[in-house]
Design brief:
The complex is a heterodimer of chains A (315) and B (275). Chain A has 315 residues and is mostly helical. Helix content of chain A is 72%, strand content 1%. The N terminus of chain A is likely disordered. Helix content of chain B is 77%, strand content 0%. Classes of the chains: A mainly alpha (315), B mainly alpha (275).
Chain lengths: 315, 275
């Protein structure tokens, strides 16, 4: 491959006089190497001004007690201390972690089970299933929330199904039930994210050499053994991705919770995203909201880092 | 193959079908509810006696979903082309040129993949209000472009990294400037990648909720999801109209998904892998 200066010499014929000098002087050559940044600059500017700066600004705001109107008071890490102490705030973080079970763990187990059953064949008609499984991924989560609010309602499909099998005693307003609301919200996440996990694992397993399965079968491996020693090791990358995507979705959940329960009943389904919104824009505790947002951001960053770390060190 | 594998094969299909039904039934339930006479109590999955589309008319004109859809489209029309142009430019430089510190810059973009809306929305409201950009589509457009930029840049960079370097070298030897190389040679080849990115960005823009809820507090300017979220708080008793509104909000993205399902699915799966 020709190195950069040679290419420039080759193009010298058409270039302007000042470009000819560039070939000789290393200083100007370095300057020209930076020239490509002209292309990066617009994207960087928008990203920096409207995403990175606000994130930094959140961290700054989190050090103040501020109602959004008057002058704020510097409280240092006081807001963070309040998050540790306030039962409602702690509860929201706990709820988010419970949602991880339903948004992440259950969909991944379901996806793995499907993959275990389907791994060995090239299946005609997969396109249609793929289409259906991805469907909950593309529609707005608000619409998903409204849909499930109706399904969980008194006259909704869930209660209808229980009545149909004679379990009238089980029926209730699921989203208003103290014991059931958080699980009900979690299952909406399961419904949304299971398809993505399945499709990720199924597309991952297609890359496995079929002869590995034949070899395993010849060695007398049963379906379980085969799954553990052939399928699973090949899905390490997909597994890390599915964990990352679904865990972030659980921790940063807002849309579904806002529409289905708005945090209720009591504080049973409050999540950090909901409290960030509520504290900043209806309770006038902007600093505290910012601190909670920072905690949430750090939690996400830590988990993403951890998952990537683990998946790399194993491979 | 022997019979054992045949039974495995069919049990696999049976399971897939159960899953598929579980996915479809909620959609079906809402769709059927939307066809019931307005204002009537509806129970779960009920086949309508008469297919009435009145609720759609009602939701479209009276509940204002036509305006909501228009506002969402306005924002998407601002976000999608700008995202594609900015990401293509940045991805081109970061993917094909040996920029000093280029990898660090790319990593800085990629780190942005972990930024949730919750982390930036609070100061954005106050900062944009200072600039007069709250209750404005421009404000939302700028933030959405920024929010999707980490993925967009990463997507285009990966694309340009995979195009043969020899193509670029050959063009350079022929005397093409870097802009000409991008416009004449690389962009025409990048059309499938750009289209997938465009679809994903459109989808994210269409589905954006929290950001719009905060930045556009004037309910007459709401987008489709924000309007739906507001509507459900106001009219939770009129299930048929609410259901019709829900379907209307889903419809544009569903139509795109039906038409471009290959690109969508490939984008979502690969996108997740790349993210």
């Amino acid at each position: 491959m020709p190195s950069r200066p040679q290419v420039q010499q080759a193009t010298k014929a058409r270039v302007e006089p000042q470009d000819a000098a560039r070939v000789q002087s290393p200083g100007t050559r370095r300057r020209s190497a930076y020239r490509g940044y002209v292309y990066v600059l617009p994207a960087f500017a928008v990203y920096f001004c409207f995403a990175v700066l606000p994130a930094l600004h959140t961290a700054y705001l989190s050090l103040f007690e501020w109602d959004g109107v008057t002058l704020g008071d510097w409280v240092g890490l006081g807001n963070y201390q309040e998050i540790l102490q306030d039962p409602i705030l702690r509860r929201s973080v706990f709820n988010a972690l419970v949602l991880v079970v339903f948004f992440s763990f259950v969909p991944i187990v379901l996806g793995l089970a499907m993959t275990g059953l389907l791994a060995r064949y090239r299946r005609p008609g997969m396109g249609a299933y793929r289409f259906l499984f991805m469907l909950p991924q593309v529609v707005p989560l608000v619409a998903v929330g409204v849909t499930w609010r109706w399904l969980y309602g008194d006259d909704g499909l869930v209660n209808q199904a229980f009545r149909a099998v004679g379990l009238d005693g089980v029926t209730r307003a699921w989203l208003g039930d103290f014991g059931a609301a958080l699980i009900a919200v979690g299952l909406v996440g399961t419904w949304v994210l299971s398809g993505l996990c399945m499709m990720l694992f199924l597309s991952g397993v297609q890359k496995v050499d079929p002869s590995l399965y034949e070899a395993a079968r010849l060695d007398g491996a049963g379906p379980v053994r085969e799954f553990v020693s052939v399928t699973l090791p090949h899905l390490r990358g997909e597994l890390a991705v599915a964990m990352t995507v679904t865990t972030v979705a659980a921790l940063a959940s807002f849309d579904i919770v806002y529409v289905t329960t708005n945090g209720g009943p009591g504080e049973q389904t409050t999540v950090p995203g909901l409290l960030v919104y509520r504290l900043a824009f209806s309770e006038g505790k902007v600093g505290l909201a910012a601190a909670l947002a920072v905690v949430l951001g750090c939690l996400i960053l830590a988990i993403v880092y951890l998952i990537n770390r683990l998946s790399r060190s194993e491979s | 193959m022997n019979t054992a594998t045949r039974s495995e094969r069919w049990s696999g299909y049976a399971l897939l079908t159960v899953m598929a039904i579980a996915v479809v039934i909620p959609f079906l339930s809402v769709f059927l509810a939307s066809l019931q006479p307005a204002g009537t109590p509806v129970v779960g999955l009920t086949w309508p006696e008469r297919w009435s589309w009145d609720n759609y008319e009602q939701a479209w004109s009276v509940a204002g979903f036509s305006d909501l859809i228009r506002h969402s489209l306005t924002i998407a029309v601002g976000v999608v082309p700008a995202s594609l142009v900015l990401a293509a430019l940045a991805g081109y430089a970061l993917g094909t040129m040996r920029l000093p510190g280029g990898n660090a810059v790319a990593a800085f973009f990629i780190a942005g993949l972990t930024i949730p809306v919750e982390l930036i929305v609070v100061p954005l409201y106050f900062d944009l209000r200072g600039l007069g950009l709250t209750n404005s589509y421009l404000g939302v457009i700028l933030v959405e472009i920024a929010l999707f930029m980490p993925f967009s840049v990463f997507w285009m960079r990966t694309h340009f990294q995979s195009t043969p370097q020899s193509l670029v070298e050959a063009a350079r030897i022929d005397g093409a400037s870097s802009a000409t190389i991008l416009l004449r040679i690389l962009l025409p080849l990048a059309r499938p990648s750009l289209m997938t990115l465009g679809l994903l960005v459109f989808m994210w823009s269409w589905n954006q909720f929290l950001l719009v809820l905060v930045l556009i507090q004037d309910t007459t300017k709401h987008t489709a999801p924000a309007g739906l979220g507001f509507f459900v708080g106001q009219n939770s008793t009129d299930i048929p109209t609410l259901a019709a509104g829900t379907i209307i909000v889903m419809l544009p993205i569903l139509i795109l998904f039906v038409i471009f399902q290959r690109s969508f699915i490939a984008g979502l799966l690969q996108g997740a892998m790349k993210g």
